[in-house]
Amino acid sequence: MHDESPLPLDPRAPLVIDASPLPRAAGAIRHVSRTVAAPPDLGVGLIGVPEGAELRLELRLESVTEGVLVSGTVSTPVAGECARCLRPIADELTVSIQELYAYPDSTTEATTEEDEVGRMQPGDLIDLEPAVRDAVVLALPSNPRCREDCPGLCPVCGAHWDDLPADHRHEEPIDPRWAALKKLTLTEE
Question: What is the residue-wise DSSP string for the chain?
C-alpha cells in the first residue's frame, strides 16, 4: 500500500492562499485581492485565457465550523476564434467562485467523500487553482462567436459572408452523370 497524500503546496504559488492569519472562530472574515498570472491550458477548444494573462481575484475568506469558505470573483481576459467565421475574439470574463475548504482535523473528513469538499493543506494553505479552473472553463462558450448574428463563411469559397455582396452565389456543381441533360435544357431555352 502506498501513500497517496497530495504533494505539499508552495505558499508562494500564485493560486495558493495562506489562511493561517484567519482566526478559526466561526464568522471571522478576511478579504484578499490578488492579481496573478493565468496557468497554462485554462480554456476549451476555440477560446481560453491566454497563459500568463492577468487573473484578478477578489475573495472573501470566512471561517466556518468545518473550515474556510472562499467566495468571490475571478476576472480575466479571454481570447480565441469565432466558431462560425474564424475571426479572432477578445473579451473579458468575470465568474463567481464559492468553495468550502475543510480543516484537516474537521469532522467533514468522516462525513463527506474525498472529492466532495476541498481540503486545506498543512499550514492552512488553500489551493485555489482547481476551483478557479472549474469556474472559468465552465463559463466559457463551447462555440464562441465574434457576435451573436455572425453569418459565418460561404461553404463553397470560404469567404466571410460579411465581406461578400448580397447577391453572392455559386453555380451548383453538376453531377457529371447529368451533364448531358443540362446541355439539352440549355439549347431548348
Answer: ----PPPPP-TTSTTEEE-TTS-SSTT-EEEEEEEEEPPSSEEETTEEEPTT-EEEEEEEEEE-SSEEEEEEEEEEEEEEE-TTT--EEEEEEEEEEEEEEE-TT-THHHHS-TTTSEEPBTTTEEE-HHHHHHHHHHHS-SS--SSTT---B-TTT--BGGGS-TT---PPPPPGGGHHHHHHHHHH-
pLDDT class of 180 with cuts at 50, 70, 90: confident
Q: For the chain, which residues make up each domain, given as ranges? A: 16-139
Q: Is the pTM of this model over 0.90?
A: no
Name residues whose C-beta falls within 8 Å of residue 93's C-beta, 6 or more positions apart in sequence: 49, 75, 76, 77, 78, 136, 139, 140
Lookup: cell for 11:
505558499
Q: What is the pLDDT of residues 86-138, one digit of tens each?
A: 999 999 999 999 999 988 777 655 455 555 677 888 888 999 999 999 999 99
